[in-house]
């Protein structure tokens, strides 16, 4: 069994096509097919169902592929120790972020890397928090940006910034106050994004469950919620850094949330065995370049953070 064979099975699982997997690995299709076949013979197990399109892993194949990703991840970590300082800020960086962060950060991150670190191949993805955690566990991504708390001892959480929440009031509502309390908002017709658009109803809460705004923004776009709120009526919630992204005519419908003021903490999440310290600091530097300094967490004010 070789690392090369493991790379081939991971590539075939990713692309579902022998042709595309071979192209990504820069080998011929016959070479890739032969090496995977030899691995199956060595393991005495069939890893893929080949008569489907796309090609799918078998049950045991899926488990072995997950292990292969971990082996390749750790092999890559070892190689970092031998790279020069210049080479450390190069190569592929797989970064996932929740959908209410990506419109704010993603354009600036791509520009930052294009201008300052063109040798970094940034691959940015938009996912819900559960998917980010799952892909971090499987080493399918390198870092995640999401809202705290994460409550997972396998990851390190690096606070990035705090931002307030604002209520957005539909023009159809007869709401005249300049502010709104959390309790008042919780009793309004509130549109949220949680595994799709939902109309929040306090009767949906389980016994002992509290109203948490951050958990309601994992899977959708704020602009979608604003349009629904405008068209149907009710209220929704807008994170502070999204305000510059909405139309000027809509900003008059925003209300600060008070008693207590509501906010969320955005964090950078990495595996505890992640060793690419310099790359982590480049990401933090990039985020500091994008967001207002008034929102920084104290932890990202130093020029360099050590793992």
Summarize the helices and strands and which ones pair or pack.
Elements: H1 3-15, H2 18-25, H3 29-43, E1 48-49, E2 56-57, H4 59-80, H5 85-88, E3 91-97, H6 102-116, E4 120-126, H7 129-137, E5 143-147, E6 155-169, E7 180-181, H8 182-186, E8 190-193, E9 197-200, H9 222-232, E10 235-239, H10 248-251, E11 254-258, E12 263-271, H11 277-290
Parallel strand pairs: 3-4, 3-5, 7-11
Antiparallel strand pairs: 1-2, 5-12, 6-10, 6-11, 6-12, 8-9
Helix pairs in contact: 1-2, 1-3, 1-4, 2-3, 6-11
Q: Determine the mean pLDDT.
A: 85
- First CA to last CA: what distance? 33 Å
CATH architecture assignment of the largest domain: 3-Layer(aba) Sandwich
Alpha carbon gyration radius = 23 Å
Number of strands: 12
Could you estimate the helical fraction of the residues in percent? Answer: 25-40%
The fraction of residues in strands falls at: 15-25%
């Amino acid at each position: 069994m070789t690392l090369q064979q493991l790379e081939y099975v991971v590539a075939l699982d990713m692309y579902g096509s022998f042709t595309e997997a071979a192209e990504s690995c820069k080998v011929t299709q016959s070479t890739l097919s032969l090496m995977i076949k030899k691995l199956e013979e060595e393991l005495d197990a069939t890893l893929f169902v080949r008569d489907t399109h796309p090609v799918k892993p078998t049950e045991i194949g899926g488990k072995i592929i997950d292990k292969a990703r971990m082996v390749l991840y750790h092999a890559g970590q070892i190689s970092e120790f031998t790279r020069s300082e210049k080479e450390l800020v190069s190569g592929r960086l797989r970064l996932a972020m929740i959908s209410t962060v990506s419109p704010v950060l993603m354009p600036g991150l791509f520009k930052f890397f294009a201008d300052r670190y063109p040798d970094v191949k940034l691959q940015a993805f938009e996912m819900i928090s559960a998917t980010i955690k799952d892909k971090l566990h499987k080493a399918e991504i390198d870092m995640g940006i999401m809202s705290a708390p994460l409550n997972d001892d396998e990851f390190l959480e690096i606070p990035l910034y705090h931002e307030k929440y604002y209520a957005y009031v539909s023009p159809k509502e007869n709401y005249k106050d300049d502010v709104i309390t959390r309790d008042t908002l919780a009793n309004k017709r509130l549109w949220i994004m949680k595994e799709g658009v939902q109309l929040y109803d306090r009767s949906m809460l389980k016994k002992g469950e509290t109203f948490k705004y951050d958990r309601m923004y994992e899977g959708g776009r704020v602009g979608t919620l604003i349009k629904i709120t405008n068209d149907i009526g009710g209220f929704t919630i807008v994170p502070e850094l999204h305000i510059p992204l909405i139309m000027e005519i809509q900003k008059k419908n925003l209300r600060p949330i008070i008693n207590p003021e509501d906010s969320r903490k955005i964090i950078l999440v990495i595996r505890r065995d992640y060793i690419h310290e310099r790359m982590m600091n480049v990401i933090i530097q990039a985020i500091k370049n994008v967001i207002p300094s008034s929102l920084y967490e104290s932890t990202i004010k130093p020029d360099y953070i050590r793992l």
